[in-house]
Amino acid sequence: MTHSPMRRHLLRVTLGAAALSQVPFGFARDKYPSGNMRVIIPTGQGGSADRLARTFDDFWGPLLGTHFEYQFMRGAAGEVGYETFIGKMPHDGQHLLFGNMGPEMIMYVLQKPAYKFPQDYQYFCRTDVDDSIIFGSRKGKLQTLQQVLDESKKRTLNVAVSRLPHPASICLLALGKAIGGSFNLVPYGGGHPTSIAVLNGECDIGALPIAGVLTQKETLQVLGIFNDEHKMGKYTDAPAVNKVAGTKIPALPSSRSWAVHTAFIEKFPEDFALLEKTSRQVFEDPKYKEAVAKTGAPVESIQYGDRAVCAAYANHMIELAKEYEGLLTAKKKKKKGK
Q1: Which of these, 307, 330, 326, lies nearest to 117 by C-alpha position?
Q2: pLDDT value of position 332
Q3: Which domains does the chain have, with CATH numbers?
Q4: CB burial of residue 258 (10 Å; 0-12, 13-18, 19+)
Q5: Bridge partners of 37?
Q6: Helix, strand or coil for residue 57?
Q7: By the number of CB atoms within 10 A of the CB, which of 32, 58, 168, 217 ranks highest?
Q8: Local structure of residue 284 (DSSP, 8 states)
Q9: In Å, how far are 83, 122, 218, 307 from 118, measured between CA atoms?
Q10: DSSP run (H or E) holding 187
Q11: Cα separation, 177 vs 174, whole angstroms
Q12: Is 324 left (phi over 0), alpha (psi -120 to 50) or beta?
């Protein structure tokens, strides 16, 4: 039996397409990266994650020889973004996630999504360590931390937060429990709308990581920092919350990180090594911290962490979420009952 050259060519194409269809999420490719990096950020646009990612990719993109495109998904405290990233995005190493590990691991514990950590995805490049704070408007009624503490014992203060499952949210709930104060947390789906809610007086105060608030120092002010040994003295004279309130709330910072599908790590270790190497090299470029400083954020918060550091932080947040689950779930039930 013989085949014409055209028939043999069509047969090869058909077999090649069939073989590719058997490779999960289209792993077959020649060059990596072969196109733009597509990134999901599981929160709203315009906040700290947006600022950090774009500043970082200005330096990472040239090292990889590519560009970055972003999609922002803030639904269900970040769960929508993760579900989309894991369940709908190709596991090819060109689809990444830039997430805030703290709140998103707390969400993972409280909401029990279908995906699994670290079986489905892994963080591999921490970009920062960002202290949780209480902040207010420079034109607001509450101008000091002591005023916040005193007022919270007289009435319920509305507190703008980016999402309920968040280290800063835990700090506020723990503070209220310790001093007998009352704080009503109102989630806004991102740092930018959270800041606006405080600026326009919709909420009395806000609770966020410090870096994003410092970039708005003309209109917002830090009132208290949830870290007894913080290094923000050159940016603000705000006191440590524990020293004013007489509490022992642990330091609960946020940390953003780049993440990739575990299937990609296992299938293409050399390509993943390139991601690790080049992302680490960004921190070695002094111009990167200069670029961060130009945004108004504190360069002291920029701290590289590798995959092991990220995993340790993520697992710590899982344990922390379990410890404070009672406070967080009680808050959610109270809100539903209103």
Answers
A1: 307
A2: 56
A3: 36-129+255-323 (3.40.190.150), 132-253 (3.40.190.10)
A4: buried
A5: 68
A6: helix
A7: 168
A8: T
A9: 14, 5, 41, 11
A10: strand 183-187
A11: 5
A12: alpha
Residue 18: the pLDDT is 37
Q: What is the pTM of this model?
A: 0.85
| Cα separation of the two ends of the chain | 78
Question: In terms of DSSP bridges, do strands 220-225 and 157-161 run parallel, antiparallel, or are they unpaired?
Answer: unpaired
Computed on alpha carbons and rounded to an integer, the radius of gyration of the chain in Å comes to: 23
Distances in Å between the alpha carbon of 203 and those of 114, 121, 134, 214?
34, 36, 12, 19
Q: What is the pLDDT of residue 327?
A: 84
Query: Pick from 19, 48, 25: which is nearest to 94 by CA?
Result: 25
Helix, strand, or coil here: 249? coil
Token pair of 332, please? 């959610």
HEC string for 196-210:
HHHHCCCCCEEEEEH
Q: What are phi and psi of 300, to 5 degrees?
A: -65, -25
Burial of 53 by CB count in 10 Å (0-12 exposed, 13-18 middle, 19+ buried)? buried
Residues 47 and 41: their CA atoms lie apart, in Å, by 11
Chain segment 24-81, per-residue pLDDT in tens: 444 455 799 999 999 999 998 998 999 999 999 999 999 999 999 999 998 999 999 9
